[in-house]
Design brief:
about 325 residues, Rossmann fold, OB fold (Dihydrolipoamide Acetyltransferase, E2P), five-stranded antiparallel β-sheet, alpha+beta, six-stranded mixed β-sheet, elongated
């Protein structure tokens, strides 16, 4: 296991900069997600950590030792890809033991370790099977077992659950979380799925267009995104136009206390769940223009003063299109852009 430091990493392909001065410090035993849209540079950063790509600038440190120019097979940073990468002509035992065989571990010791790992993965009766005989979730566990058997400094997971159906994806997330807590390994998960990143991670690094926008806990990133671009990516946010003066945000919907410096042209982020729909009168009146039932909540669109459209998540599904409603906006957590 290792502390990992990513210092000033940049990378370009054909004059297109895919990573721009990335800095991260990941503690031993942490599970960190690299979150961002497709093509933002997440997988490139993962490959640089593993030694499969070389940065144009910057350094990679494991436990304060510079590994930037160390070959990938000597880093012991193991990647699990979304396609599992199992050898179809080998049994599960042979697949799991492959890395140990390359390292020259004797057969009896390889088998002892692989038996223990299969028990941990709840696949103890599958050692003599071939990959085509396993389900998608079982194959993913075999790929994890093969990686963990090498006792990596850091386990790198490149969207490992993206090919699984929704139910199996949830099962595998819980399985990996339980395994990580039990073994205490350091792990980095690449994903474009915000829910997956928030559920699984101690901290999340959000990369958009090659730039690190925030490295923080899931709660902080959801509630206090530091940039408008990050807020747009996380979603579930309305923006009110206005002006900040003496700690007050002035808008067409009213005045709100905010923690921000004076600003002539400002946007106030209001999360969907910071707005409450009421039948009793308040200072803000609106009209339901659309509704979509989504199980736990109903997503409403509310027109206010014929010029502002607000999105609202509500557990109350009783409001209908064209209903007049009243709004209570609570911005105890506020962001100004």
């Amino acid at each position: 296991m290792a502390n990992l430091k990513i210092q000033d990493i940049s990378k370009s392909f054909d004059n297109l900069k895919v990573l721009n001065n990335i800095n991260l410090e990941i503690k031993e035993g942490e599970l960190v997600s690299l979150l961002g849209p497709s093509g933002c540079g997440k997988t490139t950063l993962l490959k640089i950590i593993a030694g499969l790509e070389h940065p144009d600038n910057g350094k990679i440190y494991f436990n304060e030792v510079d590994y930037t120019n160390v070959e990938s097979n000597k880093r012991n940073a193991v990647i699990v890809f979304q396609d599992c990468g199992l050898f179809p002509h080998m049994t599960i035992y042979q697949n799991i033991e492959f890395g140990l065989k390359v390292r020259g571990i004797i057969k009896s010791e390889r088998r002892r370790r692989s038996v223990e790992m299969l028990e941990l993965m709840q696949l103890e009766d599958k050692g003599n099977n071939y990959p085509f005989e396993l389900s998608g979730g079982q194959k993913q566990r075999v790929a994890l077992a093969r990686a963990l058997l090498l006792l990596p400094k850091v386990l790198l997971l490149d969207e490992p659950f993206s090919n699984l159906d929704t139910n199996l994806k949830e099962i595998m997330r819980e399985f990996v979380l339980d395994l990580q807590k039990k073994l205490g390994f350091t792990a980095i998960l690449v994903t474009h799925d915000k829910e997956e990143a928030f559920i699984m991670s101690n901290r999340v690094a959000v990369i958009i267009n090659g730039k690190l926008h925030q490295f923080d806990t899931p709660v902080e990133i959801y509630n206090r995104p530091r940039t408008k671009e990050l807020s747009d990516f996380i979603g579930e946010a309305n923006y009110l136009d206005g002006e900040v003066k003496d700690g007050i945000f002035y808008s067409t919907l009213g005045e709100f206390e905010v923690a921000a410096n004076d600003k002539k042209q400002a946007l106030l982020m209001v999360k969907y769940d910071q707005i409450q729909l009421l039948k009793d009168k308040t200072n803000i009146q609106g009209k339901i223009t659309d509704r979509k039932y989504a199980g736990k909540v109903t997503l409403y669109k509310v027109s206010v003063k014929d010029q502002v459209i607000l999105n609202v998540n509500s557990s109350n599904d009783s409001f209908k299109i064209d209903d007049v409603v009243y709004l209570n906006i609570s911005i105890g957590i506020n962001n100004i852009y």
